[in-house]
Amino acid sequence: MVEEHVILVNESDEPIGLMPKMKAHEKALLHRAFSVFVMNDKGETMLQQRAKNKYHSPLLWTNTCCSHQRDGESNVDAGKRRLMEEMGFSTELKELFSFIYKAPFDNGLTEHEFDHVMMGTFLGEPNINPDEVADWKWMLPEDIKKDIEENPDQYTAWFKIIFERFYDHLMQNIPTT
Q: Is the pTM above the cut of 0.85?
């Protein structure tokens, strides 16, 4: 198995090198990442529950998919690739915004990411990869927000950070009639 590398970046998202993924997370170095939110025509967001065998945050709920871009891969292409690998479907993605966050884990690893947040639309059922995903569900953003407040230990550390910004983006961009 080929070891996955991440793209190390500066605070302007300019690449400064490549590093094995685990080493970057052990050293808490800033690297490029993406987060995909897929919504349906009812305004619901598709969440995934991470697989039981994940090396961190197993069985916690998170956004539709997230991962790291490969060297030379665009943000949208990376999002589409990982969406197919994890959730088993493809859809058009639009990049909404990006920001830097840092989330340490109990196992000594730290996510320190320049995260590109993307959104797409899908109306079917995913064909989940059981090595990546234990379960999935649709939830309205306001219900997700409430559930995170009531059950924060059921969600990944990064999702709680990213969802707050995603929710604000949705609320600021609701079309007025």
A: yes
The active-site residue, picked from 65, 86, 111, 113, is 113
Two structure tokens written together for 147: 């559930």
133 is written with which tokens?
């995903």
* Distance from C-alpha of 177 to C-alpha of 175, rounded to nearest angstrom: 7
The percentage of the chain sitting over the pLDDT mark of 90, rounded to a whole number, equals: 86
Distance CA 164, CA 122 (A): 22
Q: Residue 61 region, left (φ>0) first, then alpha (ψ -120 to 50), else beta?
A: beta
Give yes or no: 66 in active site: yes
Assigned token pair, 40: 């349906």
- Alpha helix ranges (H) inside the chain: 21-27, 75-87, 141-150, 157-172
Q: SS3 of 43, please?
A: coil
Catalytic residue among 66, 86, 111, 132: 66
